[in-house]
Amino acid sequence: xxxxxITISFLILFLIGFGCKDKTPLNPDIxxxxxxxxxxxxxxxxxxxxxIENKEKKFNIDNVSNIIFKDNHTTKKQFDESMVYYSxxxxxxxxxxxxxxxxxxxxxxxxx
Length: 112
Description:
- The protein has helices at 2-19, 33-53, 61-71, 76-87, 90-111.
- It starts with a helix and ends with a helix.
- Helices cover 75% and strands 0% of the residues.
- It has one domain (24-111).
- It is globular and about 40 Å long.
- It is mainly alpha-helical.
- Helix 2 packs antiparallel against helix 3 and helix 2 packs across helix 5.
């Protein structure tokens, strides 16, 4: 009986520790979720603005991405590595894109 309580208590503490674990990647080269959201939102906004203003010209993300990365204190390499990391964690990707959609929707309401 006491052994079961100790085992159950240990299991509960273990699960609580896992449940409260910080979701930030352990690798410092991986961008935090908030930075990924910010970069993706910026890219989407620039692409949309370019499509509206320059319908005949082709959009080149490389011309703009360096400015976006610089504004977010990162590099294309770090962003690409972070995308690879997050692509291995589908729930995180879904969360990032839900935040992107939410942010873009909020910006759309402000512009109306």
